[in-house]
Amino acid sequence: MPDFSLKFPIGEVRTYADRYSYEDDSAVLAIGRDARERGFYLYDELVEVCRWKTPRSGPLVKSNGAEKVEAATRVALNPESSERERMEALRSLRGVEWPTASGPAAPCLPGALAHPR
């Protein structure tokens, strides 16, 4: 196993940590509950959840049409879909690659692809 060593003094950890904001996840979890009950994400919901997960993906995610978002997320949220099918469906959307794909699944399918930030 490789050795891990900080590249900066341990006393600077708080300084670096303070550079990041940690949002309240309740709105995203509510979106996920609604999408789970409906069986798919609405376009605006997917944009918001992807922004929460990976903000840089926003412009590409926004370039997907509402019909494509619904079709892909129907597969991704279907309890009968395999993890491979879920990931392939989500990754078929522009701006949704491996780091972002767990975002829409996390609030809807706890334990399945759920790797929130």
What is the C-alpha radius of gyration, as a whole number of Å? Answer: 16 Å
Distance between the termini: 25 Å
Structural class based on helices, strands and sheet pairing: mainly alpha
Number of strands: 0
Order of helices and strands: HHHHHHH
Number of structural domains = 1
What's the story with the biggest beta sheet? none
Rounded mean pLDDT score: 85
Anisotropy-based shape: elongated
Low-confidence stretches: 113-117
Amount of beta strand: under 5%
Number of helical stretches of at least 4 residues:
7
Q: State the helical fraction.
A: 40-55%
What is the strand and helix layout of this fold?
Blueprint: H1 13-17, H2 26-38, H3 43-53, H4 58-62, H5 66-77, H6 83-91, H7 98-105
Helix pairs in contact: 2-3, 3-7, 5-6, 6-7
How does this structure look, described?
By secondary structure, this protein is an all-alpha fold. It has one domain. It is 54% helix and 0% strand. The chain is built from seven helices and no strands. It has helices at residues 13-17, 26-38, 43-53, 58-62, 66-77, 83-91, 98-105. Helix 2 packs across helix 3 (43-53), helix 5 (66-77) runs antiparallel to helix 6 (83-91) and helix 6 crosses helix 7.
